[in-house]
Amino acid sequence: MFPPNLIDAATRLLAECRSRRLKLATAESCTGGLVAGLLTEIAGSSDVVERGFVTYSNEAKSELVGVPPELIARVGAVSEEVARAMAEGAVARARVDIAVSVTGIAGPGGATPGKPVGLVHFACARAGKTTIHERREFGEIGRGPVRLKSVELALQLLARQARA
Amino acid sequence: MFPPNLIDAATRLLAECRSRRLKLATAESCTGGLVAGLLTEIAGSSDVVERGFVTYSNEAKSELVGVPPELIARVGAVSEEVARAMAEGAVARARVDIAVSVTGIAGPGGATPGKPVGLVHFACARAGKTTIHERREFGEIGRGPVRLKSVELALQLLARQARA
After folding, report:
1. Cα–Cα distance between B156 and B145 in angstroms, integer?
2. Which chain A residue's Cα is nearest to B151?
3. SS3 helix, strand, coil % of chain B, rounded to 5?
4. Looking at residues A70-74, what average pLDDT do you find?
5. Do B32 and A53 touch (CB under 8 A)?
6. Among A104, A108, B41, B62, which residue's CB has the most CB atoms within a 10 Å radius?
7. Three-state SS string across B97-119, please?
C-alpha cells in the first residue's frame, strides 16, 4: 500500500533505532496515523514503536500530549510552537527516546490568513537532545500528496534524531 | 494510497456519522494507525474523527484506553476481552460516540498456542449501546493483507454501530 521508497525508509529507520535500542512514538495531526501506520507495516516494528497519538482535535493535542490550550489559542494548531510541544509531550507521555510530530493543513479547505493549504510543521524530540523543527509549504498538490510527503519528511527527522 | 473500495467505505461512513452528528475515535494495535489514517484521508474528516490511539505496546493499551494490565496478563492482548476493553476505553477517554478497536497478529511472527498468525479481534463500542465484537482468522496471507482486511472490517463495524 505504501510506496516502496517509504517502506525502505521505514525499514532503515527501524533497524537504526533497534541497533541503538531506541523506542519511538508519534504525534500526528494532518497525517492522521499514517506515520505510525507505515512504521508498523514492517515486521518486528514492536521492538521500536511504542505507541502513537493521533491528535486530530485540539482537545486531543492537549489531553494526549500536553499541548497547552492557551498556546493553541494564541498561535494556532499549525505552528512551530505546537509541533514542538507535540513532539516533546509525546516523548514525555510515552516515556520513549524519540518522537516526531506533524501538524499541517492538508486541504483542500482549512487555509487561514498566513497559513496556506499545504503548510506543515514538523518537530522531532529526543530525550536529552535539542528538538528539531521543520516547516514546509507543499502547496496545493492535493490532500493525499501533502500527507505522503509529510510522512516522508517525518521519517527523515526521526532518522536524523536517531543518529544525533 | 488506500484502495478505492476503502476510500469509498470511509467516505460513506463519515457521511453517515456526520448526518447523525456522531464523533468517533480509534484504538489500534495491529493496524497501527491505518484505520485513523484512512478516515483522515477524506477531506472534512475532522467533523467526525476526534482522535486515535495507536496502542502498540501493552503499556499503551493500559495507559491510553484503560485496559487493565491484569486482563492482558490473563487472556493476552489478542483477545475478545481486550478488544472490548480497548473500544469501550476509547469511547470513555476520548468522550466520543463511537470507537473501534483492532488487536491481532499480523505476522509473520507472533503466533502462540491457540493464537495463529492472522487472528484478529475487533470491537466497536457506542455510548449507550451494546458493544459488538468480531473475531477473524485471516490466515497466513501476509502482514500487509491482514492489516488491510482488518481496516476494512473495522470500518464495517463502525458503520453498523453508526446505524444502531
Report:
1. 17
2. A37
3. 45, 20, 35
4. 98
5. no
6. A104
7. CEEEEEEECCCCCCCECCECCCE
pLDDT tens, position by position, B18-31: 999 999 999 999 99
Instruction: Name the packing angle between helices B58-65 and B80-94 (round to 10°).
Output: 40
CB pair distance less than 8 Å for B56 and A56: no
- pLDDT at residue B98 in the model: 98
Fold of A4-163: Maf protein (3.90.950)
Domain residue limits, chain A: 4-163
pLDDT of amino acid B102 = 98
C-alpha span between B154 and B18 (Å, rounded)? 18
Residues forming a β-bridge with A134: A122
* CB A15 within 8 Å of CB A128: no
Q: For residue A96, which residues of chain B lie inside 8 Å, CB to CB?
A: none
pLDDT digits (tens, 9 = 90+) for B97-156: 999 999 999 999 999 999 999 999 999 999 999 999 999 999 999 999 999 999 999 999
Type of residue found at B117 = V
**Chain A residue set in contact with B, beta carbons under 8 Å:** 1-3, 26, 28, 30-37, 39-41, 43-46, 49-57, 59-60, 64, 94, 106-109, 143-144, 147-148
- What's the whole-number mean pLDDT along residues B71-97? 98
Q: Do the strands A119-126 and A132-137 form a parallel or antiparallel pair, or are they unpaired?
A: antiparallel
Instruction: List residues bridging with A137 in a β-sheet.
Output: A119
